[in-house]
Amino acid sequence: MSATVAPVQARSAVPARRWRRVLRRRSWPYIFVTPFVAVFAAFSVYPMVFTLRLSFTKWRGTGAAQWVGWDNYTYLLTNPSFWASLKNSAVLWLLVVPAQMALALAIAVLLNHAALRLRNLYRVAIIIPFVTPLVAVAQIWIVLFDQDYGAVNSVLGALGLPHVGWLVTSQWAKPTLALLFIWKTTGFIMIILLSGLQAIDPAYYEAAAIDGASRLQQVTAITLPLLRRTLMFAVVMQTLAVFQMFTEPYVVTKGGPYSSTTTAGLYLYNHINRADLGTGSANSFLLVVIVMGLSLIFVRLLRPKD
Amino acid sequence: MTASTRHHRRAALTGSHLFLATVTLGFLAPVVWALVSAFKQPAAIIQQPLDLFSSGFTLANYQRMFEDVPIGHGFLNTAIVLVTKGTITLLGAPLAAFGFAKYRFPGQNLLFGAVLVTLMLPMIVLIIPLLLEMKALNWVNTYQALILPGSVDAFAIFWMRQVIAAVPDELLDAGRIDGCGEFGLFWRIVLPAIRPGLAGLGVLTIMNIYNDFVWPVVVASSSRMATLQVVLSTLAQNISGHRISADYATVTGELLAASSVALVPLLVLFIGLQKHFINGILAGSVKG
Questions:
Q1: Both B116 and B218 in a single domain?
Q2: pLDDT tens digits along A101-131
Q3: Which has the closest alpha carbon to B198: B112, B30, B62, B86?
Q4: Which residues share a beta bridge with A67?
Q5: Which of A258, A274, A144, A119 is nearest to A198 (CA)?
Q6: Which of A152, A247, A271, B160 is the most buried (most CB within 10 A)?
Q7: How far does the CA of residue B207 sit from the closest CA of chain A (Å)?
Q8: What whole-number distance in Å separates Cα of residue A101 and Cα of residue A109?
Q9: A155 CB near a chain B CB, below 8 Å?
Q10: Distance (Å, rounded) from C-alpha A291 to C-alpha A294?
Q11: Can you give the pTM of this predicted structure?
């Protein structure tokens, strides 16, 4: 009897201690992720849930919220100014993304030659705009592109060309903001593409050169197909950034002239000024759906065709 | 190699340099123009914008700007947010990343899924929800509102998890055998081992916090709480306010001086720590 009891006691005493140790070790990862979970729950999950509810109400920031069902959503989806803000962002996308990808790719391909002199100098200079504070350069843009006193119009004048109302006419305001965006972020796209280029095995180029392929043929036959994923990735990043564009129009044009630069991001922000928080919440969710939808479309395109 | 291909090569090389030099000039010109023009007489800034050096050197724009613009206060607020929020990010993110990279625990996938969702969620859509929460907490125009949201950044966790996963498990096991506690493993083994990654995260975090504008302008727009970028953004409104009067030149001079003061710290930081910046930006690009 005692022979059978003793091992049982021993077995239960050892696991108890080991269990405590295991439990303590098991609880460590939870302790480690606690700061993240706390911040995530308090400043992402809670506000999103709260706003989802709010998007079905009419609320001006004080007093009781009034339940209005889908009204905020139908109001936005039937409101021409909501669609105009999306259209402004879409036009900015067309002005920014193709031109920027071509420019960044050209720079990256040229910089991808280790023997090129001044390579590091070029690279650093081209990244500088990306690290500068956007508000500061947006202000410089206002001064540079001033219709009467700006340096850009002075250059045009010196060349015998007429002055352009860069920021005060609705046909030029979007291109001027697009130029700011391209100037600010091309260095970033260039580094992404450059790292993609550096992952391509140089043996491909050597083989192509032996076969007598020209530099241009090498780019179209080797670089572009192998860089497809990286390029599409850069397109996704810039698509998300353009549809959230806020600071540029907020500082430079305040969304004008005639709402021509009221982007999707600025339109969303304007609900706060009007204290129209129910509609603003609905707009937030519509923008989430649009941005996520666009990302998914590009992620599909990202997959290799085969 | 034949003479013609050599000739061809040299032409291509000259073309490369011509293109890159032109592009470089275009990327540097706005910044250089602003930095130099801020030392010109206000009238000359707007009357001869292209003549950078012959109109005489002056510190008047800086003097007037420091009198009129509360830029020192903006710097102070930015510095407070930079130190506190930066510290939280640089400790909280690697800590969570350590939990995700080196342990298996129930609920892990769910929580890491939360990290990925936060990565994809555009900041701009959180603005209204977060602002309402800050109002409910009575936190509008406070430091905690500037510091806490986004302080344990999902992207930083995502990146640090990859960095920490590369730390060999044998190193951690050796530490355990030597009697190191689990937190000690993080503090004494993991953090020193990932120093290059931490440096990249550090410069990227500094850049993001220093340049951040959307959230500060929404939640801390009072002059007492305004960060550097928020202070700067009010200058543009002055410009449109003085459009017709002769003050336009003066206001432009102040604006260029203020923008220069805001630009220079990051330029110095970037030129000094290029390698870490580029590593940080590249790591930033692998997200998603």
A1: yes
A2: 999 999 999 998 877 888 889 999 999 999 9
A3: B86
A4: A57
A5: A119
A6: B160
A7: 7
A8: 12
A9: yes
A10: 5
A11: 0.88
Query: Which pLDDT score is estimated for B5?
Result: 72
Residue ranges covered by each domain of chain A: 2-54, 73-302
Query: Looking at the predicted structure, is the pLDDT value of residue B287 above 60?
Result: no
Residue B157 maps to which CATH number? 1.10.3720.10
**Contact between B27 and A143 using a beta-carbon 8 Å cutoff:** no
Q: Which domain holds residue B11?
A: 1-28
Q: Find the mean pLDDT for residues B125-133.
A: 85
Q: For residue B149, is it within any domain?
A: yes
* Helical segments of chain A, H only: 2-40, 46-54, 71-77, 80-111, 119-131, 134-144, 151-158, 170-198, 202-210, 215-218, 224-226, 228-243, 247-248, 264-273, 277-302
Contact list in A for residue B124 (CB cut-off 8 A) is 244, 246, 265, 268-269, 287
Taking alpha carbons only, the member of A83, A56, A100, A138 closest to residue A264 is A83
Same domain, B18 and B109: no
Predicted confidence at residue B210, as pLDDT, reads: 94
| A68 has pLDDT over 50 | yes
Q: Encoding tokens for residue A300?
A: 């599909």
Question: What are the structure tokens assigned to A56, written together?
Answer: 């079905």
Q: How confident is the model at residue B33 (pLDDT cuts 50, 70, 90)?
A: very high
Nearest CA among B54, B114, B144, B141 for reference residue A46: B114
For residue B55, which residues of chain A lie inside 8 Å, CB to CB?
A: none
B84 and B214 fall within a common domain: yes
Question: Min CA distance, B162 vs chain A (Å)?
Answer: 16
At B214-254, the pLDDT tens digits run 999 999 888 889 999 999 988 877 666 665 555 888 888 99
Rg (CA), chain A: 28
Number of structural domains in chain B: 2
Q: Are residues B72 and B19 in the same domain?
A: no
Q: Which helix (H) or strand (E) holds A67?
A: strand A66-67
Mutate to test the interface with A, among B25, B45, B128, B264 (most CBs of A within 10 A): B128
If you count residue pairs, one on A and one on B, with CB atoms under 8 Å apart, how many are there? Answer: 271
Mean pLDDT of chain B: 87
Is B201 within a domain? yes
Chain B contact set for A107 (CB, 8 A): 20, 23
- Tokens, residue A194: 């450059």
pLDDT at res. A293: 87
Q: What is the pLDDT of residue B206?
A: 92
Which of B47, B210, B235 is closest, CB to CB, to A139?
B235
The CATH number, out of the four listed (3.10.20.600, 3.40.980.10, 1.10.3720.10, 3.65.10.10), of the domain defined by the range A73-302: 1.10.3720.10
CB-based contact (8 Å) between A180 and chain B? no
